[in-house]
Amino acid sequence: MNKNRGIKSSAFICLGLALFFAMAAPGWSKNNNTRTLHNYTVPDVILINQDNNKIPLKELLHSDKPIFLQFIYGTCTTICPILSIGFSHFQKKLGEGVSGVELISVSIDPDNDTPEAMKMYLKKYGAQPGWQFLSGKRDDVIQVMTAFDAYVTNKMDHYPLTFILAPGEREWVRIDGLMSTADLMNEYEKISK
């Protein structure tokens, strides 16, 4: 039975990676994404990061750096690995400018995404400083997901979303759909001008 689960997990990961690399191909169009602007009221909650540090979310999101935020969970085998590979490649593409951007992954599975699990997850994707994985009390996480109109009752029903906030702005860019590294760079260039 365990062998079958391992084979299925490997198949999902391979499928996800194939989809990601297909998206990164020069002919892939970002027109599959929907880009909208929204004012979100960030709840005043304390989350924890991969280092088990308490993080006041409002303070973190009130930054002088561009912010890229996604909702994921560590045991996901479908879209979360694709989103995380995107963040990883984006950090590499930024090069020396990587310290000028805040990447935030918020867990939608706080029961399983412990600081230790989040730290291992970030290591697996080669995360550099400036990429935090946050979790916390279930009620606090639900507040955050609801505030960003991203709440799902079952983690298996989640969908790819990326939220981007330029320094000093109040409106968030919301992108529904998977993004390639080129798409992330394009959004970064738009808000860095």
Description:
Helices cover 39% and strands 21% of the residues. Helix 1 (2-24) packs across helix 3. It is globular and about 40 Å long. It contains 6 helices and 8 strands; from the N terminus they run H-E-E-E-H-E-H-E-H-E-H-E-E-H. Strand 7 and strand 8 form a beta hairpin. The protein is α+β, with helices and mostly antiparallel strands. It has an 8-stranded mixed beta sheet, with helices on both faces. It has one domain (2-191): Glutaredoxin.
Describe this protein with a few key phrases:
193 residues; Glutaredoxin; 39% helix; globular
Quick summary:
By secondary structure, this protein is of the alpha+beta class. The chain has one domain: Glutaredoxin, CATH 3.40.30.10.
Write the SSE topology:
Elements: H1 2-24, E1 34-39, E2 46-49, E3 54-56, H2 57-61, E4 67-72, H3 79-94, E5 102-107, H4 115-124, E6 131-135, H5 138-147, E7 161-165, E8 171-176, H6 181-191
Parallel strand pairs: 4-5, 5-6
Antiparallel strand pairs: 1-8, 2-3, 2-6, 4-7, 7-8
What is the total tally of β strands? 8
Model regions low in confidence, pLDDT < 50 over at least 5 residues: 11-30
Q: What shape does the CA trace take?
A: globular
**N to C succession of SSEs:** HEEEHEHEHEHEEH
* Count of the separate structural domains: 1
- Radius of gyration equals 16 Å
